[in-house]
Predict the structure of Catalytic domain of components of various dehydrogenase complexes.
Amino acid sequence: MNDEQQQGFTVVPFPRSRRLVLDAMHAGSRKHMIHGLVEFDVTEARRLLREEKERTGESLSFTAFILHCVGAAVEQDKMIHACRDWRGRLVLFDDVDVNTIIEIELEERRFPLAYVVRAVNRRSVRELHDEIRHVQQNPDRSHGEQTMSLMRWYVRLPGFLRGLAYRILPLNPAWLKRVGGTVNVTAVGMFGEGGGWGIPLPLYTLNVTLGGIATKPGIVDGRIEPRDYLSVTLSFDHDIVDGAPAARFAERLKGLIEGAEGLGEGGEGQVAGGE
């Protein structure tokens, strides 16, 4: 029996893959973020999802629905996902590329995979759903061998070089967009049930953190009814986005989600179901 076992604990190596998380957290801690904790009524959207599943037998992606709404909301004010370049200028992207977490099966375990969904502001819910399902079914091919090789090489670098990469990459917004997208959407609610907010340490100008869904009393046409409320944390880089534009974005996103944008009859991207 070794010394650690005699003392009641076990020492294991720190996974190299966690260096990706550590570096992201260090970079995020340098940003000047403002956060808003809000709730969106997703009762209508969930009703449409259930109806679609009953009609077709297929559960479509709730994440795809949210990405569609985020893209539509950012499309109306592209400053919300702008970046500064090395000369201090603001770069406003035409496409909303969302870095999100997709839960996959890997070696008989469920694993959160970071994946960039491109041009969500130009695509239907159905198109986004199909891509998400493709990634879940083919996780080994979602990033490409070149990207995976780069990640394996990156985590072997000394800490000061990895930190330098995180300082240089944001200075070229085109590179940043290509590697990590322009907006971050994280669904912490996929790992538990009930309401509640997540407080991120964000890297992007706009970060959307989806919490849980809770059933609470709501007022509809003067009547109290049970409603489903999604907890959402909206985080903005205050160096670029002020409070008033942030509040207007939150109102736009609320209207799109509560109005079940892209779902129902006549919607090309109709339906999206639980992830």
Notes: The chain has nine helices and eight strands.
